[in-house]
Amino acid sequence: MKRSLFGRLWPNVTAVVLFIGFVFPVYWMFATAFKPTGDIISEDPVWFPTDITFEHFKRATGVDHFWTYVSNSLIVTFCAVAFALVIALAGSFALARMRFKGRRGFVIGFMLAQMAPWEVMIIAMYMIVRDASMLNSLVPLTVFYMMMILPFTILTLRGFVAAVPRELEEAAMVDGCSRAQAFRKVILPLLAPGLMSTSLFGFITAWNEFPLVLVLNKETEAQTLPLWLSSFQTAFGNDWGATMAASSLFAIPILILFVFLQRRAVSGLTAGAVKG
Amino acid sequence: MTVQTERPPSGPVDVTKRDESGPAGPRRRAASRAGALTPYLLLLPACVATVLLLGWPLLKDVLLSFQNLNMAQLIQHVTEWNGVDNYKEVLTGEDFWRVTLRSILFTAVNVALIMVAGALVGLLLARLGRRMRVMLMVGLVLAWAMPVVAATTVYQWLFAQRFGVVNWVLDKLGWHSMADYSWTSSQMSTFFVVTVLIVWQSIPFVAINLYAATTTIPSELYEAAALDGAGGWKSFTTVTLPFLRPFLYATTFLEIIWVFKAFVQVFTINGGGPDRLTEILPVYAYIEGVGNQHYGMGAAIAVLTILILLGLTAYYLRIVLKREEEEAGL
Fold first, then answer.
1. Contact B11, A100 (CB under 8 A)
2. How far apart are CA B308 and CA B97, in angstroms?
């Protein structure tokens, strides 16, 4: 079946238009971040920056406590992901490899937990943390972020554990390994890619979290990068250069991770839902 | 094979075999009982975490919704129960119903746009040549990956009153009154910006997954349809669409749930303003509760919102589980 010139052309033209539409906001963020201020506040937009400048990045990172935000974000994110991985690994092994009463119930329970409406529970979480005198601390943040990513981590790891051939484990046990040893020496190394991609999605979630830290941590010493970014609007007025530089810095790690993870994201739908 | 007996049952066949081979020694029975406990022990940390960190806040929310808890009570640490007063106030007031209706309309418009546009882009991906497909895919992934807070600041810049690109383009296209337009000045224009942002970020998820689903359609089905004389449109409605229906169904529900609780986008673009006119339920609960410090009222709104979401989620899980069972049954 031969298609007409028009039939061959329109999908490609539409694809180009769509590509521009989807990429433009991201491109504009980076372009603005590197443009001199004169090019940003010009009557006609400067589409392609010619003079590259780093002054906006300097101003964005020169904010008081910038490095506190960075280290807070890193600490909270890494701890949350690490705890979630350890807890999820045990649980997912049980769900993937063992038969027991209530197994299906556990799976459904974690699926429900994955859809938990965290955005709406902020008031209760605020009260709990306040009653424990833990406001402006990184501990409650870490613990709650861990919980936000735990159900997804369990459900995804379950798939990865199930994909490791049972024969390998049995062979190790025939050779004299205990079940725990077989797990550590055979399954764990094979799970490494799965652990990697699962933890990266957890990383993205925790890195982006905004409503909870907004309510819990009012003191700058305990705040994270999303608050730094959202406060730019008010603090810097119309300093779009610095704001876009901040957005770029915040987005770059996630954009890089995501491009690598794109394939896994697709299979993530069956294991549960993933949203960037 | 002593190692084998210490193994916890690893499949339904194993279990029944073990139960039937009744005359096992006491030692062996003790070992298998310990083995039967292993999965529960492995799941224990996850369950404890879920109960403490998810169950407790949920319960706390319900408890708070029956309390008179404002600034004064908060500072003095007193608990004043007031029965269903919060609910009475919320449900008889006009605000709650107005915000609920607004949330439903907001969700409906967004999800309709996301699903229609996402499906079209997904089908386009399936039709493109390899090089063009990879290019469009990269664009989609970039939009998908943008952190929400970063994306909202970028959209504020795109739609900025002065020097914003959108206003400049509209002006050049001949719509001169838009040259200095403030997008956050009215309810509809704020919702417009939020909708563009949400749709832009959500289409990639639908499109890429839909494209992935189309690649699993067996080509024999199309060949059979072509033999029966089906043209492009006919084979689309008889092969593609029925094959994708469960996927579309599940994704629609996911999007409904996600958009319904789109707190960050609405809140960071304009704080629910102007004049609280763009508050959707999660934002309304936050501003009533934390912003205006009527914590009990906010909790009651939150509980009502959670109930709506729970209904949606239960329905979504039913779809997903049914599909899983059908696949397992094949």
1. no
2. 13
Residues B192-206 pLDDT 10s: 999 999 999 999 999
CA–CA separation, B267 and B265 (whole Å): 6
Q: Judge whether residue B28 has pLDDT over 70.
A: no
Contact predicate B130/A220, CB 8 Å: no
Task: List phi, psi (to 5°) of B294.
Answer: -105, 75
* Residue of A44, A48, A118, A123 to mutate, interface with B, max B Cβ within 10 Å: A123
Residue B265 CA to its chain's centroid (Å): 14
Contact yes or no for B158 and A28 at CB 8 A: yes
- pLDDT, one tens digit per residue, over A117-154 is 998 999 999 999 999 999 999 999 999 999 999 999 99
Domains of chain A: 5-53 (no CATH), 65-271 (1.10.3720.10)
At residue A250 the predicted structure's pLDDT band, cuts being 50, 70 and 90, is: very high
Pairwise CA distance, residues A52 & A193, whole Å: 38
Q: How far is B143 from chain A (nearest CA, A)?
A: 6
CB contact under 8 A, B157 and A32: yes
- Using DSSP's 3-state secondary structure scheme, residue A239 falls into coil
CB contact under 8 A, B155 and A44: no
Q: What is the spatial distance between Cα A112 and Cα B55, in angstroms, rounded to a whole number?
A: 12
Mutate to test the interface with B, among A120, A227, A252 (most CBs of B within 10 A): A120
Separation in Å, CA of A129 to nearest CA in chain B: 10
What is the sign of the dihedral through the CA atoms of B98, B100, B103 and B108?
Answer: negative
Asked if residue B6 has pLDDT above 70, the reply is no
Q: What percent of chain B has pLDDT over 70?
A: 88
**How far does the CA of residue A23 sit from the closest CA of chain B (Å)?**
5
The 3-state DSSP class for residue A107 equals helix
Domains and CATH numbers, chain B: 2-64 (no CATH), 85-329 (1.10.3720.10)
Residue B81 bridge partners (DSSP): B67
For residue A273, what pLDDT is reported?
37
- CA pseudo-torsion sign A155, A160, A163, A167: negative
* Burial bucket for residue A50 (CB in 10 Å: 0-12, 13-18, 19+): exposed
Span B125-173, pLDDT tens digits: 998 888 899 899 989 988 988 999 999 999 999 998 888 899 999 999 9
Q: DSSP secondary structure string, B228-253?
A: TT--HHHHIIIIIHHHHHHHHHHHHH
Length of chain A: 276
